[in-house]
Amino acid sequence: MIESVTVYVDEAAVVHNTKLLRKTLNPNTKIISVIKANGYGLGMVQLALLSEKMNIDILAVLDVAQAIELREGGVTAPILLMGATLVSNFELLIKYDLIQVLIDYDYAQKLSDFGLEHDEVVKTHLKVNTGLNRLGMRDYDEIEATYNLPGIEVQGIYSHFVEAQAYEVDAVEFSKAQISEFKSVLKRLEEQGINPGLTHMQNSPSVLHFGDLGFDAVRCGMVMFGLFHPSQKAYADQEGYKDVVRLESRIAMIRNIRKGEFVGYGRSFYADRDIRLATISAGYCDGVMKQLSLNGGGVYINGTWCPILGDIAMSQFMVDVTHVACEPEDVVMIFGGPQQTIYDYIAITRQSINELVSHLRYNIPRVYENKIFD
Fold first, then answer.
1. Is the pTM of this model over 0.70?
2. How many other C-beta atoms lie within 10 A of the C-beta of residue 209?
3. DSSP bridge pairs for 154
4. Contact 51, 22 (CB under 8 A)
C-alpha cells in the first residue's frame, strides 16, 4: 500500500545506537528510555516495545494519556510520568501501575492525601529543580519532608540539565553547578539516613558531553534514536552513532505552467519561465514547515534536488521538476536520505532537532525497516 507520507525508522540503527550507549555507561547504570512526543516522532508504542526487547529498565513519557496508550499497546515495563497528572486522574496512576513525578511539595501532599484516602501507595520519583525552573523542588526541607509523606513511595529522585549540549565556558560551569547542587541534595538525604532511591540526572546530550557521571540511571531518547544537537553531531558520528529516521512523500500530480503564472497561496511564486510542476502530498501538518520554502529549501526526487515553489500549505506543496524524469507516485525524499540528512534539513528550516521530529503528524504511518526482533 502506498501512503502519501511515511516515516521510516531504521530499527537496526536504534539497536546499534543503544549498544553504543551502553558501552559509554558504567556496567550497572540503568537506562530510562524517554519516548515522549510520540517517541520523538518515531512512534511511541513501537519504540516502547522495541525498548523492552532491548531490556531497557524504565520508560518515560510526559503524561498519563501517553502511558495508557503504552499499556493498551501491550507494554509492561515500568513507566515514569515526567509531567503533572491532574488530581482527578490520580486513580489512573494505580490502575495502570505508573510512576508519578513529584513536581513540588504541595503536589506531593495532594498525592499523599489520595493514597491515604484510597488505601494505596503511589509510586513516585521526586524532581529537584537545579536551575531549569520548570518543575521540581529546590527547598531541601521540603525534599526531605516528601520522603516521610504517607500514601506515596519515593522510589527515585532526579534533576534535569539546562544546556548540557553547550560547550561554552559559562554553559559548562552552569552544568557543573547543577551537578554539584543535585549531589549535595543526595548527600544530605543520605546523612539523614534516607535512601533517595534511583538517582538520575543525565539526558542524551550530557552523556555525550560528560560521560557517565555515576548516578544510578540515565534518561536517554535522542542518542538512541539518532537525534543529536548540531554541537554534538560530529562527535556522535565519530563514535559511530547512526541516523535513524527518514521522511518521504509521493508525487500527487504533475502539470505544466507557463511563464507569467503564479504558484501557491498569496501568489507566492511567479514563474519567469515555463515550468513542469509537481504537487507533493505533504505539508506543514505533516512536519514539512513553511520555513523550508521561505528559506530556499527543496526535496529530492529520483536522486535530483527539486526546489520548492510557492508557499507550503497544510497538506501539499509544489516543486519544480522541469529537470527531472518523474511521474505521479514517485517517491519524494524530504529528509533522512544521503542527499539531504535531517541535519541539512534543520539548517534550512532553522528548527531544533526536537522541534522538527515532534511536528511529525501523530497518525503518519511509521514503517520499521531492518528489523532485528520479530
1. yes
2. 22
3. 124
4. no
Show the domains of the chain with their CATH numbers. Answer: 11-225+235-239 (3.20.20.10), 245-369 (2.40.37.10)
Predicted confidence (pLDDT) per residue in 210-254, tens digit: 999 999 999 999 999 999 999 999 999 999 999 999 999 999 999
Q: For residue range 13-72, what is the model confidence (pLDDT) as tens digits? A: 999 999 999 999 999 999 999 999 999 999 999 999 999 999 999 999 999 999 999 999
Phi-psi region of 99 (alpha: psi -120 to 50; beta: other; left: phi over 0): beta
Give the strand pairing for 304-309 and 331-335: unpaired
Dihedral sign of CA atoms 64, 67, 72, 76 in order: negative
Strand ranges for the chain from DSSP E: 5-10, 30-34, 58-61, 79-81, 99-102, 122-127, 152-158, 198-200, 217-220, 245-257, 262-263, 269-270, 275-280, 298-301, 304-309, 317-320, 331-335, 366-369
- Provide the β-strand partners of residue 145: none
| Nearest-angstrom CA–CA distance, 245 and 227 | 9
Name, in order, each residue with C-beta under 8 angstroms of 355's C-beta and a sequence gap of 6 or more.
Answer: none
Cα(38)–Cα(9) distance, integer angstroms: 13
User: ∠ CA 40-206-361 to the nearest 5 degrees?
Assistant: 10
Q: What pairs with residue 81 in β-bridges?
A: 61, 100
Give CA separation, 170 vs 146, 167, 361, in Å.
Answer: 33, 8, 37
Q: Which region holds residue 57: left if phi is over 0, alpha if psi is between -120 and 50, else beta?
A: alpha
